[in-house]
Design brief:
Protein name: DUF4476 domain-containing protein
Number of domains: 2
Strand content: 25-35%
Keywords: Signal
Order of helices and strands: HEEEEEEEEHHHHEHHHHEEEH
Length: 270
């Protein structure tokens, strides 16, 4: 049984959520950002600029309508990221970065979505923001535990997402190689930190991905793959790949160097 402990970033986030609304002094400025897809963001920095209340609307995601107390990460060239704890991880939700090719400098990043959303400042909208109402909304949601629930790591959802990504790699390899490729992972042996911070499909799916690459490169390799029924993958102290009858047993590690090259070399010598 895996014992799960709150991450350091989660503890920090929960500490921020526990702050009384009265302890927050909002600045005089507010911004409203909009996108062509209907997403809008309301930003109200604190007086010292270290934090900001942020609310996104129009997104099909649990963070829709949640007023988050974000940390403002200041970056070079006056760029900045508004970061909040979502699903057990401190994430950049809105980023301001000067762009010479895009029509806007603001971008929204929705967890679980591959494509970011370009946001354009709405000056008239910013002037009409009711800062006291936004503060009251934040306080009410905080008392209801809305932000704390958003910050909590959802292991079941992470497992679902990782399994789907790995299944897609197996399916592609199976199609190209003309034989069933199945990667099995000891999911119960993975901790929350690994599930939340690592691309398990990127590690464990590399064997199937290399099989597909070699099948595309050399049709003769397909015969070798036909002898392999599955790939068992787990994490350990060292990178190791071996064959056990019709099964490949793959052990990887988080700091593994040249994983692809090692797998490729082994497969070519099956």
């Amino acid at each position: 049984m895996i014992r799960r402990f709150p991450t350091c970033s989660l503890l920090i986030a929960l500490a921020l959520l526990s702050l009384s609304a009265r302890a927050l002094e909002l600045g005089d400025q507010a911004e409203v950002l909009t996108s062509e897809s209907g997403i809008s963001a309301t930003l109200v920095p604190t007086a010292d600029g270290s934090k900001a209340l942020l609310r996104l609307n129009g997104v099909d995601h649990p963070l829709d309508g949640v007023v988050m107390l974000t940390e403002v990460e200041k970056r070079p060239n006056d760029e900045r990221a508004y970061r909040a704890e979502i699903n057990g991880k401190l994430r950049s939700v809105v980023v301001f970065a000067r762009s010479y090719w895009a029509p806007t400098d603001y971008t929204a990043y929705i967890p679980g979505r591959e494509e970011p959303y370009a946001l354009v400042a709405d000056e008239a909208g910013g002037a009409s923001v009711d800062r006291k109402a936004l503060m009251a909304e934040y306080q009410q949601q905080m008392e209801q535990g809305v932000q704390a629930e958003l910050a909590r790591f959802d292991r079941d959802e992470a497992l679902k997402r990782q399994r789907q990504a790995l299944a897609a790699i197996d399916k592609s390899a199976s199609t190209v190689c003309g034989t069933r490729v199945k990667t099995r992972v000891n999911w119960d042996g993975l901790g929350d930190e690994q599930l939340n911070n690592l691309s398990i499909s990127g590690y464990c799916g590399q064997v199937a991905a290399e099989m597909e690459y070699l099948c595309r490169k050399d049709s003769g390799f397909k015969q070798k793959v036909a002898e392999i029924s599955e790939v068992d993958c787990g994490f350990g102290d060292a990178l190791d790949l071996r064959r056990n009858a019709n099964k490949l047993v793959f052990q990887t590690r988080e700091e593994a160097d040249n994983q692809r090259e090692a797998i490729n070399g082994f497969l070519q010598n099956l």
